[in-house]
Amino acid sequence: MLQDRRPRGGRAPTPEQRARRVLGLLVLACLTVITLDARASSPLDPLRSAVGNVVGPMESATATAVRPFSDLGDTLQTNHGLRKDVARLEAANAQLRGQVATAPVDRQRLAELDGLTKVVGDTGYSMVAAHVVAVGPMQSFSRTVTIDAGTSSGVHKDMTVLNSDGLVGRVVRATRSNATVLLIVDTDSVVGGRLGTNLEIGFLRGRGSVGDTGRLALDLVDDSVVPAKDDVVVTWGSKDGVPYVAGIPIGRVESVVSSPRQSSRQAVIEPFVDFTALDVVGVVVPKGTKGDRPVLTAGAPQ
Questions:
Q1: In angstroms, rounded to a whole number, what is the distance separating the alpha carbons of residues 217 and 206?
Q2: Is residue 232, in this structure, part of any structural domain at all?
Q3: Which end of the chain is less enclosed by CB atoms within 10 A, N or C?
Q4: What domain count does the chain have?
Q5: How far are the Cα atoms of 10, 13, 16, 47 from residue 7, in angstroms, in the given order?
């Protein structure tokens, strides 16, 4: 019959006592290993080397295999940032190229606007500045342009239109935002003109051509007067300045043609305005005009 072996003179150890003994043995073993490993020549070095030789290549291979997946997020974020930078730089370059391309146009327009402001100061007329946005069709046999100012800016029919060089024409139609201008070179255009040297008056009619061949014909009221070559012709004005105000340069005398049958002389006038390069123009409006754009006056824009 089996008998319960117990230490002599005492009882069997309890579970708590066994746990304390095991814990003490583990602590003692750890201290022993630490003490041996701290020596210059540790008996654990061969074991550590063996484990390193086995585990090291495995760690390197694992890191190499996992690296593309671990770096994928950083790569995507970096590519996204680079694409944003490239798009931003391309937009900035496009804007700079546009500024460089339009710089000559802007300078020319600024010069024309400055010239128009000078005309305002010289003549004392109030003007609304506008841009030519369209040219009348060749099929209509009329010489007209469309400007981007209309009744909302104070522009109405039978108003004088000019630029920094001289007389352009008169308004023949106006809507709220646009107006049609009949050029003085049109065959339907008749302008009262005055010679600069002797103040003789006459009527200028367009010949229908623009560019280098665009000319006006001047018939003086006094047929006996012979206009001098290069004499300047200006507008002598209409009642209440409609459709033409006085004192606007038109052109200069290029030549004089005599008609023996009719005993009359007709002067050929070269206009000051280049009608093939119209851009900034001014429409003469009554003083005190209010509209949706500034009015140029002899003082400051209203």
A1: 7
A2: yes
A3: N
A4: 2
A5: 6, 9, 17, 41
| Residue span of the structural domain in which 147 resides | 125-296
Residue 22 resides in a domain: yes
**Are 146 and 65 within one domain?**
no
| Residue located via tokens 């304390």 | 20
Lowest pLDDT segment from 138-142, 177-181, 286-290: 138-142
| The model's pTM | 0.65
Could you tell me which of 187, 237, 244, 196 has the C-alpha nearest to residue 215?
187
Q: Which helix (H) or strand (E) holds 19?
A: helix 15-37
Place of tokens 């070269």: 270
**Residues 236, 229: contact at Cβ < 8 Å?**
no
Gap between the Cα atoms of 152 and 288, Å rounded: 14
Are both 23 and 161 inside the same structural domain? no
Region 196-202: mean pLDDT is 93
CA-closest candidate to residue 195, choices 239, 227, 162: 227
Structure tokens at 236: 């002598």
Closest CA to 261 of 299, 234, 223, 213: 223
Average pLDDT over residues 110-123: 85
Q: Are 162 and 274 found together in one domain?
A: yes
